[in-house]
């Protein structure tokens, strides 16, 4: 178990059972956000990446903020060609600020979605089939009922795969703005 003096090798916060072991020490989940796709990253690499991120965030000038009703936010600095994603206008944690050129891929997935299948006309078809052909007709009539399947519920989540200072990571946001995919696609093509 972690002792009272065990601290994150990057930010110095106390570590708990959620600590992540990387080459050269243990880090907290918040600091690991820059290296989620780089399991062989070292403390020194992650530290340098966070220093770069601090500079980017400090110099970030949001020339454009994209959001819809009840969606997350996409902050864009068009002059420096940088983005960051956030679920709220004011973030508690420093966001991961990335350059347009660092985007490898992105996708939007519907998480928690359920498939519902409804059968329409089964009883009516069984009655007609039964009246015309008896029990066998009722079974065939019910079996030929029209089925309708649809996906309902769920939350859209935008995942953006990045390469920052030689490390791979993924940032995500729930309920992304409707135009987020268009802006990311355009940024990848610049």
Number of domains: 2
Count of individual beta strands: 11
Give the radius of gyration: 25 Å
Mean pLDDT figure: 84
Share of residues in strands: 25-35%
Shape: elongated
Q: Which CATH class of the largest domain?
A: Mainly Beta
Distance between the termini: 48 Å
- Profile the largest sheet: 4 strands, antiparallel
Uncertain spans, ≥5 residues at pLDDT below 50?
none
The largest sheet has its strands arranged as 3-4-5-6
Number of helices: 4
What's the CATH topology label of the largest domain?
PH-domain like
Q: Helices and strands: which structural class? A: alpha+beta
The name of the CATH architecture of the largest domain is: Roll
Kindly state the percentage of residues in helix.
25-40%
Report the order of strands and helices.
EEHHEEEEEEHEEEH
